[in-house]
Amino acid sequence: MKTIFLIAKNTFKETIRNKILYTILFFGILIIALSRLLADVSAGENEKIIQDVGISSISFFATLICILAGINLVYNEIDRRTIYTILSKPVKRYQFLLGKYLGLSFSLLMIVLAMTAIFVLYLLWNQIHPHPAIFQAIFLEFMTILLIAAFAILFSSITTPLLSAIFTVFLYIVGNTLYTVKLAEQQAILQKGWIQTIFKTLYHFLPNLHNFNMKVYASHKMMMPLPDFLSAIAYGIVYTTLVLILAIAIFHSRNF
What is the pTM of this model? Predict the structure, then answer.
């Protein structure tokens, strides 16, 4: 465990020193601040608009940082050949990968907490009392980010940053729209046949990120039912664990 935490610590420092991170973070905070302008042009929906934009901004920009940082973490070590030096020490491959993931995750946690604190202060400045559902929604968005981080680490260990970015963004987009497959099936929009089989396969195997989306609850100041909330957390933990196990297995099979 000491080795994992040491690698995580170094990864955290490496991520935090990235200047691109602060640029993206600045734009995220700027969008939150500008949400009032969007709310002013809406009819009686000021509070709802500000909350929706705030939560969405935290999720989007933290995910963007996650992808940009994650796709380079393992690849850079391989490209610079520092991986040989690291693995020549008493460091096992799973320790290296888990350390990278934990370091990235802690960096993302700090970013989400910082943006959340600014968001809450902005709500209070606009005389909006933050409902607990907001924090519940942000927590589930963070679960999404942790899952995306696992995929970024997986792809970073097997391919180039460009392809890793493409694959990770693809999974993020598909994961957020996958629930429509179930809706189409329920409404008999999706016709039976090989197309339906493909979509159903994707639905069952790819991450369904809609499970973590509770912006609707937050905007209406409603807490997600506890069974659904716990189910979403369990889904995130299990799926993230499986992705990390796959990443470790693939990384272990590579010749360094």
Answer: 0.89
